[in-house]
């Protein structure tokens, strides 16, 4: 990180380290490994290790032959695994079968996931890998195959691991059952309703964490805008996935003069080299350097965004991608688009309502400009506009009904933007074929706007209804989906 004078601000103190513009190492060290284990390898690896650990324990019992298991071991030796050669052949067969079946099954699943991702969004891949159930299935198969191979190497004429072979057979039976479950689960997870629902749930959870960890602990506007200001610039590139407010606040508290940090980035925002990360109000010189370095270290930049952290905006963008792709003339498939509208309707009903007065006394001297409300309403605007391309009147009516149903419950800031979205998109929403469904939706919206005292918006909705009725009985080329 580096400091730079803000407009009309003092000259900054030099920083200890500064990456050059040709240093293109992005994000954080170990990001690829952390991402791999966080998304998939961690859960699958733990399951595989658990299977191997159980197998190791059984191998010890095979070696030590404790008294309580002598009867079981003798029965297996006499009736199932009579010779070491028989046991070795069985273990080799099981290991080869498990590895072959797992490889074929996983390859076919990847093809199915690719097809679903190409028609919806790449988030399908992330969902599939992050599901704990999928990690369990994959880890179990890998662990079983590895255990069967390792167990094969222990068989010789002087040692017949009958308990280990019995465990391998038992786990193989479980694997066959899990294979059926895995196939159904993979197919079920590719359904649009499951994909959209998963995005919706993770988005709401991420927004709850974002509000608790960042929004409620910061102020939306600075209290010292006229104080001397120094800018903190970035020498890295990537998406902001974490901001450690406590680290910044500790450095602010150590400064002997009143200080305020105004963040110029938000969670999920992209930072390029030299972009301004924050402004330091009320602090200069060496103190500004310490606070600026704390700001730089408090931000984690990565190549890839992730809903599971606190990046709720990324969830909105993924839903918008699914809705836009399904609504546009490229697919003419309103099913997924209507699911997205329903999910966004619930998001707006949960997160856009008035939740009481904001906290005027947060526990930090940090300013954070929350962009989630703006992006949420922009998403509605984008989906409303794209319906004009494909003439999907069902989706257009769903959008009007969704906004109309929550309009009276929205917080003032959300309500103002929702009315603005409707006014900007009514030309697109009113350009559809004059279906009764769309006319009824516009009439209900007009009545709601009149009840809220939005006279100008109500007149615009009434004009859209009149325009719709005027086209009844006429034939226009514009009604043909493109």
Number of domains: 3
What's the helix-strand series?
Answer: EHHHHHHHEEHEEEHEHHEHHHHH
Structural class: alpha+beta
What is the approximate shape?
flat
Reported for the largest beta sheet, the result is:
5 strands, mixed
Largest sheet strand order: 1-2-6-4-8
Number of H- or I-type helical stretches: 16
Task: Give the beta-strand count.
Answer: 8
Query: How far apart, in Å, are the first and last alpha carbons?
Result: 50 Å
What Rg is obtained from the alpha carbons, in whole angstroms? 30 Å
Please estimate the helix content: 55-70%
Mean pLDDT metric: 83
Uncertain stretches: 10-17
Describe this structure in words.
The chain has 482 residues and is α+β, with helices and mostly antiparallel strands. The protein folds into 3 domains: 2-28 and 209-302, Aldehyde Oxidoreductase, domain 3 (Alpha-Beta Complex), CATH 3.90.1170.30; 32-190, no CATH class; 312-361 and 368-479. It is 62% helix and 7% strand. It has 16 helices and 8 strands. It has helices at 31-64, 70-79, 84-119, 123-130, 132-153, 162-189, 192-213, 245-254, 285-298, 312-327, 334-351, 372-390, 393-406, 412-429, 436-451, 455-470; strands at residues 2-5, 229-233, 238-243, 260-263, 270-271, 276-281, 299-302, 366-367. The strands form 2 sheets. The chain has a 5-stranded mixed sheet. Helix 7 packs parallel to helix 11 (334-351), helix 11 (334-351) runs parallel beside helix 13 and helix 14 (412-429) packs parallel to helix 16. The longest helix has 36 residues, at 84-119. It is flat, with a radius of gyration of 30 Å. It starts with a strand and ends in a 12-residue tail after the last helix.
């Amino acid at each position: 990180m580096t400091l730079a004078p803000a407009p009309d601000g003092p000259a900054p103190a030099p920083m200890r380290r500064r990456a050059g513009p040709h240093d293109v190492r992005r994000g954080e060290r170990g990001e690829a490994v952390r991402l791999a284990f966080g998304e998939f390898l961690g859960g699958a690896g733990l399951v595989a290790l658990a299977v191997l650990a159980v197998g190791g324990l059984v191998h010890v019992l095979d070696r030590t032959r404790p008294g309580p298991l002598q009867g079981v071991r003798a029965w297996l030796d006499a009736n199932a695994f009579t010779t070491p050669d028989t046991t070795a052949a069985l273990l080799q067969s099981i290991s080869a079968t498990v590895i072959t079946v797992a490889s074929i099954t996983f390859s076919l699943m990847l093809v199915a996931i690719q097809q679903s991702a190409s028609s919806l969004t790449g988030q399908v891949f992330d969902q599939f890998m992050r599901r704990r159930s999928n990690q369990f299935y994959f880890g179990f198969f890998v662990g079983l195959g590895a255990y069967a191979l390792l167990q094969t190497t222990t068989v010789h004429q002087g040692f017949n691991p009958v308990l280990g072979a019995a465990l391998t057979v038992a786990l193989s039976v479980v694997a066959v059952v899990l294979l059926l479950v895995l196939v159904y689960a993979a197919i079920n997870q590719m359904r649009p309703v499951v994909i959209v629902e998963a995005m919706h749930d993770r988005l709401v959870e991420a927004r709850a964490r974002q509000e608790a960890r960042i929004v409620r602990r910061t102020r939306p506007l600075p209290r010292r805008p006229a104080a001397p200001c120094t800018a903190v610039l970035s020498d890295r590139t990537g998406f902001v996935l974490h901001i450690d407010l406590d680290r910044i606040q500790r450095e602010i508290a150590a400064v002997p003069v009143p200080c305020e940090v105004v963040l110029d980035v938000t969670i999920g925002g992209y930072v390029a080299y030299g972009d301004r990360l924050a402004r330091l109000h009320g602090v200069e010189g060496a103190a500004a350097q310490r606070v600026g370095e704390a700001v730089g270290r408090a931000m984690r930049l990565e190549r890839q965004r992730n809903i599971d952290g606190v990046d709720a905006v990324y969830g909105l963008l993924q839903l918008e991608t699914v809705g836009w792709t399904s609504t546009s003339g490229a697919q003419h498939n309103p099913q997924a688009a209507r699911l997205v509208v329903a999910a966004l309707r619930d998001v707006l009903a949960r997160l856009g309502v008035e939740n009481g007065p904001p906290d005027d006394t947060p526990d930090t001297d940090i300013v954070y400009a929350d962009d989630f409300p703006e992006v949420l309403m922009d998403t509605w605007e984008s989906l409303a506009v794209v319906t004009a391309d494909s003439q999907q009147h069902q989706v257009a009516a769903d959008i009007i009904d969704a906004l109309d149903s929550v309009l009276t419950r929205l917080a003032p800031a959300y309500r103002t933007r929702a009315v603005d979205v409707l006014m900007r998109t009514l030309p697109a929403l009113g350009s559809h074929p004059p279906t009764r469904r769309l006319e009824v939706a516009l009439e209900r919206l007009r009545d709601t706007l009149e009840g809220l005292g939005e006279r100008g918006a109500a007149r615009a909705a009434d004009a859209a209804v009149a325009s719709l009725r005027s086209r009844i009985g006429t034939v226009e080329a514009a009604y043909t989906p493109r």
